[in-house]
Design goal:
alpha+beta; Nuclear Transport Factor 2, Chain: A; three-stranded antiparallel beta sheet; two-stranded antiparallel ribbon; 5 strands; globular
Length: 137
């Protein structure tokens, strides 16, 4: 009989050890701590998608660069290009993440993109999702 073994990161066994902070920051507690690697991976992906290339000082290739794409006309081909770019960048920067579903909805009149990303953590088979709205103000 086969068992589905799950590789749980050792840091998850220390419930009092914070791994990072939630995004967006809260008003009352500016930094709300995150205590599991699953939650931290989610916020790392959100941070990645909201960061432009060249914005991080010693890692200029980090970031999806989505805000710069909002100046282009949002068509289905533009959304397909963004989708392929996000998928390949997440594979490169997050090797423990397997993208299971990625959908983009754009509004060309308001320069607005909604990204819905569902993924699985390869080492634990845990699934999660994130919804991100990016708008050019």
């Amino acid at each position: 009989m086969a068992y589905g073994l799950v590789n749980i990161p050792s840091i998850d066994f220390k419930p009092s050890t914070a791994l990072g902070v939630k995004i967006p920051f809260a008003a009352n507690n500016v930094f709300t701590s995150v205590y599991t690697s699953q939650e931290q991976t989610k916020y790392n992906i959100i941070n990645f998608l909201l960061t432009d290339r060249g914005e991080r000082p010693f890692n200029p290739n980090f970031g999806a660069g989505l805000r710069s794409r909002l100046f282009e006309s949002i068509t289905t081909s533009t959304l397909d290009e963004i989708k392929m770019s996000i998928t390949s960048q997440i594979e490169a920067f997050f090797p423990n993440v397997l993208v299971t579903e990625l959908s983009l909805v754009g509004d060309p009149d308001r320069s607005y993109i909604t990204i819905t990303l569902s993924y699985t953590l390869k080492n634990t088979n845990q699934t999660d999702s994130a919804v991100i709205n990016i708008q050019n103000l």
